[in-house]
Amino acid sequence: MTEHRQENRRLWNEWSDDFQSLWNANTADGELPPAPSPFAPDAPGGPQPEIIESVEGKKYVELGCGGGQGSVGTAELGASPVVGVDFSGEQLRHAEQLRDFYGVDAQFVQGDVTDLPLADDRFDVASSEAAFQMVEHLDQALDETRRVLRDGGVFVFSVMHPLYEGLDPETRTIEESYLDAGPREVVIDEGYESTLTVFDRPVADLHNALVDAGFEVRRILEHGNHEVRTTDPDDRDLPDILWEVPHSVRFWTVAR
Ligand SMILES: C[S@@+](CC[C@H](N)C(=O)[O-])C[C@H]1O[C@@H](n2cnc3c(N)ncnc32)[C@H](O)[C@@H]1O
């Protein structure tokens, strides 16, 4: 394991309880915590029926599944079997808890997205949300994704938008060059020992990496904050400029 990977994994193990409590912050007593799926009718950018009509009965894998929200939400839509992969044991513990709350069938596997412990051609559908920007060797992660998907399988891939990440909202200036893919070190405020290393790749680089790994890119969507941050009342206080640039970028692709 490279140094970045080890340190990132340590950070996720340290941060997991606090991170997952953010997810569940607005859950009233007795309510199920959220489990949004990228294939749900209210997903950012919405489903893409011309690419995949339904995930019902489809073999699905979530890469960098964290607390399992996407896996559980997609199992709720009828995907089966459902597998979530993450390298953080603590994140997977939360994922298993969420699965048990919902009473759905999903298997969570500890592993690195650049070396998936999964057989070739095993899945019809894959997704990854807000995880591959932490991966130094994006080409390896995408090659592995392509390997575990059958020909014609669908991969929905989303990361934080590099423009959003590079912006200093206070001064309304570009703090990190859009063209610099990193590495960038992120210190999480809560005072953890470990830091996080991320790679803010330009959208063109993400697109070309997908093509090089054998994916046909059918749609590129850029989501504003209004699409992805609808539940947290604190969001109303975000500086104006963060509502004027894309928060994340999403690719709907098909394995060639
Ligand atoms: C921001 S969380 C996103 C989790 C989930 N996809 C979501 O949308 O909430 C990023 C996750 O990616 C995982 N991750 C980062 N790098 C990874 C790698 N190389 N292999 C496996 N998991 C990784 C982290 O452990 C963390 O759970």
Describe this structure in words.
This protein has 256 residues and is of the alpha/beta class. It has a single domain (3-20, 53-255), classed as Vaccinia Virus protein VP39 (Rossmann fold, 3-Layer(aba) Sandwich). The protein is 29% helix and 23% strand. It contains 7 helices and 11 strands. The protein has helices at residues 3-23, 69-76, 89-102, 138-148, 162-166, 203-212, 225-228; strands at 60-63, 82-86, 107-110, 123-129, 149-160, 167-168, 173-174, 184-186, 196-198, 215-223, 248-255. The chain has a 7-stranded mixed sheet with strand order 3-2-1-4-5-11-10, sandwiched between helices. The longest helix is centred in the first third of the chain and has 21 residues, at 3-23. The radius of gyration is 17 Å and the shape is globular. Bound molecules: S-adenosylmethionine. S-adenosylmethionine binds at residues 5, 8, 12, 64-67, 69-70, 86-88, 91, 112-114, 129-131, 134-135.
The structure class reads alpha/beta
Number of domains: 1
| CATH classification class | Alpha Beta
CATH architecture: 3-Layer(aba) Sandwich
Sketch the topology as an H/E string, one letter per element. Answer: HEHEHEEHEHEEEEHEHE
Q: pLDDT average, as an integer?
A: 94
Strands, total number: 11
Q: Helical content, roughly? A: 25-40%
Poorly predicted runs: none
Radius of gyration: 17 Å
Strand composition percent: 15-25%
Write out the CATH superfamily name.
Vaccinia Virus protein VP39
In DSSP terms, counting alpha (H) and pi (I) runs of 4 or more, how many helices?
A: 7
List bound small molecules. Answer: S-adenosylmethionine
